Amino acid sequence: MMLEPKDRKVITSYVSVVFALSWALDVIVYFQGGLANPRSFQILVGVQMLIPALVAVAFRSLRREGFRGTGLCLGKKRYYLAAFALMAVFLGLSFGLSALTPWLTLDGKLTKFQELILAITAKSGQAFPMSVGVFAALMAVQMGILGAILGIPAYWGEEYGWRGYLLPKLLGLGKIRAIAVHGVIWGLWHAPVIAMGFNYPGHPVAGIGFMTVFAVLMGAVFAWLYYASGSIFVPALAHGFLNQGAAYGLFFVAGHHSLLGGPTGLIGLLVLAALVWGLYRWKALDAVGQPLC
After folding, report:
1. CB 107 within 8 A of CB 254
2. Exposed/middle/buried for 51, CB within 10 Å: 0-12, 13-18, 19+?
3. What is the pLDDT of residues 276-291, one digit of tens each?
4. Is the pLDDT score of 123 beyond 90?
5. Can you tell me the distance from the alpha carbon of 293 to that of 1, in angstroms, rounded to the nearest whole number?
6. Spatial separation of the C-alpha atoms in residues 22 and 45, rounded to whole Å
7. What are phi and psi of 3, to 5 degrees?
8. d(CA 240, CA 238)
9. Is residue 54 within 8 Å of 157, Cβ to Cβ?
10. In a designed cystine with 98, which of 25, 107, 214, 267 is the match (CB 3.0 to 4.6 A)?
11. How far lies 64's CA from each of 56, 67, 77, 162, 228, in Å?
12. Quick one: which of 83, 22, 106, 15 has its CA closest to 241?
């Protein structure tokens, strides 16, 4: 299957604009100190996450494509739970299996939680009102659940751009090829921040390759959630829970090899590949391309 010349032109234009704007922000991030300046990094990367959707909205408006059939509705409610469940299983298996290898070491003493409690008490000058275990549980709710829900507007930026605009235009290639190509584009979009040390510190080149593979596989899961639920907000929720849950999981980790252990390392990629194979084997990916609200 091939794309029509007009579709190739739109895709090329869209990707070029998104990459140009996003990577320009990354240059600013770099000269602001990159990861060494976490506040600036978080703000600018947060803005960058909105660029794919903002450009998609601009293209839809200028080309008079309209917004019907792009999943801007709540969709099928059961898939919100499926989004949480899938990401929880993926993260749990990724961290759990990694802990069985030399590539990830768990911290049984909860050192990072202890350090955070010390910082809070030092700032407040008062005794901490709860145990470390209760504090860890509350952080799980705050980061994993509330963080994912409150982060939907930001993660919608990526989802509405990549899944809501780019992927449908690539479907002329066939479902599997479209999912793969849009995943490669999504992965390479992360290249500058990965090169700065995000996710794979110390591995700027190999990290880009690993992130691209991760994006292809996770892009397949998010594409299924998008089309099966009929709502762009479902993959946005999954995306938020993935990022927040992975960050929370690292509180329990004393150290790990970023290319091999954890959700974005080799172990995580194998778990994710098995998940995508299951979706393919059970024909769940057949939902990709079906009509949306």
Report:
1. yes
2. buried
3. 999 999 999 999 999 9
4. no
5. 26
6. 9
7. -90, 145
8. 5
9. yes
10. 267
11. 12, 9, 30, 19, 26
12. 83
Q: Of 105, 108, 106, 90, give the one whose Cα is nearest residue 267.
A: 90
- Beta-bridge mates of residue 253: 106
Question: Taking Cα atoms as reference points, which of 233, 219, 231 lies closest to residue 167?
Answer: 219
For the cut 80, the answer to whether the pLDDT of residue 136 exceeds it is yes
Kindly report the backbone phi and psi dihedral angles of residue 255, in degrees, each rounded to the nearest multiple of 5, phi listed first. 180, 155
At residue 253, the 3 state secondary structure works out as strand
Whole-angstrom distance, CA of residue 63 vs CA of residue 14: 12
Q: Say if CB 98 and CB 262 are below 8 A apart.
A: yes
How many residues would you count in the chain?
293
Listed in order, strand segments (DSSP E) in the chain are 104-106, 253-256
Q: Kindly list the domain boundaries of the chain, sorted by start residue.
A: 5-287
Note the pLDDT tens digit of each residue in 46-80.
999 999 999 999 999 999 999 999 999 999 999 99
